[in-house]
Amino acid sequence: MERVVRREAHAKINVYLKVLGRRADGYHDIETLILPVSLADTLTVRFDAELRLTVKGERADAVPVDDTNLVMRAARALAGRAGIDLGADIEVEKRIPVGAGLGGGSADAAAALHALNELWACELDRTVLLDLAAGIGSDVPALVHGGAVKVRGRGEIVEPAPDVGVAGWFVLVPLSFQVSVADAYRWWDEEGRASDGLANDLEGPVARHFPAVSDALRRLEELGADRVRMSGSGPTVVGGARSEQHANEIAAGIPGSIPVSAPA
Q1: For labeling, which of 36, 66, 108, 222 is most exposed (least CB within 10 Å)?
Q2: How many C-beta atoms surround the C-beta of residue 207 within 10 A?
Q3: How confident is the model at residue 42 (pLDDT cuts 50, 70, 90)?
Q4: Was domain 4-160 assigned CATH 3.30.230.10?
């Protein structure tokens, strides 16, 4: 019988994101609290003679399937660490908006590490997977760990944060454009400052270049959302809701928005 492994790849939101400064290696030191949410891609892996990736779903056209995809990078990194020469047919059902500050590509890579570790019987523990994740992308370690986590460094220092006090319902408002992570941090270098509160330090610089971010934040507030802020490097904005019903009511007032629960 064919061996099939499936994993859910959950999007994330940043409850807050502090940018502490630019590092000598070009990355930035950050401090952030990440929550995985119920919105998720589905990743399915099967044995195959070669390593290949297919992406399906309404968002598939925006996703490359070559070695620039973090899933492929994750698969090759895992095979190299485990010292194996095996292939896999990897399929991603894409639901998370692309380039939206929700960590969709990172979530897929994290799910690939877990799924292929099982499929290929690598038996690598989470410590090793976290080390591999740090070399793939800044958000990948947090999503490999799973659950609510506090993240420091450039993303490689991950600590569980089970008692964050912010679990519940949220509304995601994806916007119709993408924001380059590199641009968001460059704008912060040019005009941003580290904050003292539970804000997103990238929000101001990104919103100054894309006023639609400010418009979406304001609309969430008008509809009664709290904890309103941009997620990650944007442009998706997020608002907290009191309940599932409240989240659905807010979402009904903003076309294209997505009610989610967290942590997933």
Answers
A1: 66
A2: 21
A3: very high
A4: yes
